[in-house]
Amino acid sequence: MTALKIASWNINSVRARIGIVEQFLRDEQPDVLCLQETKAADDVFPADPFRKLGYVHQRLHGQRMHHGVAILSKVPFRDASDACWRYDWQDNGEARHVGVWLEAGFRLENVYVPAGGDIPDPALNPKFAQKLAFVERMTEWSRCLTEPTLMVGDFNIAPLESDVWSHKQLLDVVSHTPVEVAALGRLQDAHDWVDLGRHFYPAPARLHTWWSYRSPDWTVNDRGRRLDHMWATPSLAAKATAHKVHEACRNWLKPSDHVPLVTEFEV
Hints:
Blueprint: E1 3-10, H1 18-28, E2 32-36, H2 47-52, E3 57-61, E4 69-73, E5 77-78, E6 97-102, E7 106-112, H3 126-143, E8 149-154, H4 167-170, H5 178-190, E9 194-195, H6 196-200, E10 210-211, H7 218-221, E11 224-225, E12 228-232, H8 234-237, E13 240-245, E14 261-266
Parallel strand pairs: 1-2, 7-8
Antiparallel strand pairs: 1-14, 2-4, 3-4, 5-6, 6-7, 8-12, 9-12, 10-11, 13-14
């Protein structure tokens, strides 16, 4: 058996925050780092700092100024069996997915689900309709999976009442509306995904991964939401040994509004 540590982080511009990414990698030493919202086209992605820290295996799917995902790894990987490492679940060419097959024996899918705008009505808000369609396409893909898989990223949905600072006040706020929660539930049911966060920290334990920049001091009122997730197929979930939300990173210099998640496996 080999220990494997995998991290996921919506970094909200990798070039602007490369300093704290390097700090996190030096401190935590994950084997694999999945980033979302890199906001950098592949030709300007800061690949060298990662290589210097040992992350020589890199799979990028970037986009100028918007979106973007990346997998940086110390351990080798290759294309998945279906050879599709850039799914267009948004159906418009946005860079929101990148996937690989880790030589440890499972697929790793890194996903950045659209935020969905401000109005939780698909008839009035095309961005919200696109978000729901994105999750539905993921659900159809999920039903066809035949390999052990870890799916990580910013899902932009907080599904449980205990995943937000106030269930009652956020019921009509995009990210926690009943229609989004139901869509995410269908995705989870499509392949019996195990939500590793709640596997290790069962509800109603407090478990937030995002705090708005709008609050001058996010620690004062702690109005967080659990938007970032790590889900595993059942056979792989059985090999997970630990999971941690690195909340302290929200206080670092020039932080992202999200914090990293790390799951450890024995594979």
